[in-house]
Design goal:
With 78 residues, this protein is an all-alpha fold. It contains 4 helices and no strands.
């Protein structure tokens, strides 16, 4: 099954609500595989069930792209 997702490419494509949801989940936590999955769920607007269909290497790639936009992993540890 093919899954098409929209990955934000710039900060203006991320809503304040999405960012706040992300902070609730990830603030102060290490970047685990589950946190990566939640990031994709929140910022790409797909369900966690759909995220689970994505290959681990693609999850890494997608989360790296999103982290570049939202300020990187160091923003989580503040």
């Amino acid at each position: 099954m093919k899954l098409k997702i929209n990955i934000p490419e710039k900060l203006s494509e991320i809503t304040l609500g999405q960012y706040q949801d992300w902070l609730k989940v990830a603030e102060g936590k290490e970047m685990t595989h589950f946190i990566q999955q939640k990031m994709i769920e929140i910022f790409c607007g797909i369900t966690l069930k759909e995220v689970l269909m994505i290959k681990a290497t693609d999850i890494d790639s997608i989360t790296n792209e999103i982290l570049e936009i939202v300020g990187g992993a160091e923003a989580l540890n503040n």
